[in-house]
Amino acid sequence: MVANFPDLKDASVFITGGGSGIGAALTDGFLGHGAKVAFVQRSDAAPFCDEMEKKHGSRPLFLSCDITDIAALKASMEKAAEAHGAITVLVNNAANDTRHKAEEVDEAFWEWSIGINLKAYYFACQQVIAGMRAAGGGSIVNFSSISYMMGAAGYSVYTTANSGINGMTRSLAREFGPENIRVNAIAPGWILTERQKELWVTPESLAAHIDRQCLKRELVPDDIVDPVLFLASKASRAMTGQALVVDGGVAVTG
C-alpha cells in the first residue's frame, strides 16, 4: 500500500471471498488501516487468519459460507454485524471465471454462474442497506471486470454478470444516494492471482495481454488494494455510480 485512509480505522468491513487471491490482499489492506474485517468463503481460511493476526495484531472474522446460498450469506453478514457493528463497507469480491463454450451452457451452469457472479452481489447489497442507513451512510464496492468491455470470448455467462454488475451499481447508487450510501464498481484487468496462474496463464497469452496494456508489466492483487480502499473511504465521498477501471490501460474509458 502507498496510500493511507485514516477514516477506515475501526470501520466494519465485510468482504466476500476475502481469504484468497485479490480478496486476501484486500483483507490485509483493510486490517492494515485498523478496520474490523469479516469475510466469507467456502474453503478453510484459518491459516490465513493466523497469518493476518500475527501481522496486524487483530484477527479477521472468517465465516464459512457458499455465497450462492443467500440465506447463509445473509446469516453470515448478520454475524459480522453483531461482532463488529453495522457493516459500513461492503466489498463484493468473490467471483468465478470458469471458462465455457456458449453452446454447451445448460440451465444448471447458468444458474450457478449467475448465482456466484451477480445474484449474491445483489442480495449482499440489500442486506447492508438498513445498517448503513442507521449509521448515516456507507460504501459498497462491487467487483466487475474489463472482460465484458472487451467482448471477451470463452466465458460469456461471466461477462454477462459483469455487465449486469455495472447496471446494478448505477441503479443502487441512484436509489440510496440520498441516504449517503455510495455504490461503485471496480473493473480489474488480468490480475495474476495463483488461480489465474494455475489455470489460464501461459507465456504466450500473458505476453499478448501485456502488449495490449499501456503499462508493460504484470498486474498483481496488491495493485487493486489502494483503489478499493479509496472507494471505501471518504476520500471518494463525491463518487457514486461509477466504474473504476484498473487494468494497466487496456480498456481506455471516457
Automatic annotation (TrEMBL):
<dbReference type="InterPro" id="IPR036291">
    <property type="entry name" value="NAD(P)-bd_dom_sf"/>
</dbReference>
<feature type="domain" description="Ketoreductase">
    <location>
        <begin position="11"/>
        <end position="193"/>
    </location>
</feature>
<dbReference type="InterPro" id="IPR002347">
    <property type="entry name" value="SDR_fam"/>
</dbReference>
<dbReference type="InterPro" id="IPR057326">
    <property type="entry name" value="KR_dom"/>
</dbReference>
<comment type="similarity">
    <text>Belongs to the short-chain dehydrogenases/reductases (SDR) family.</text>
</comment>
<protein>
    <submittedName>
        <fullName>SDR family NAD(P)-dependent oxidoreductase</fullName>
    </submittedName>
</protein>
<dbReference type="Pfam" id="PF13561">
    <property type="entry name" value="adh_short_C2"/>
</dbReference>
<keyword id="KW-0560">Oxidoreductase</keyword>
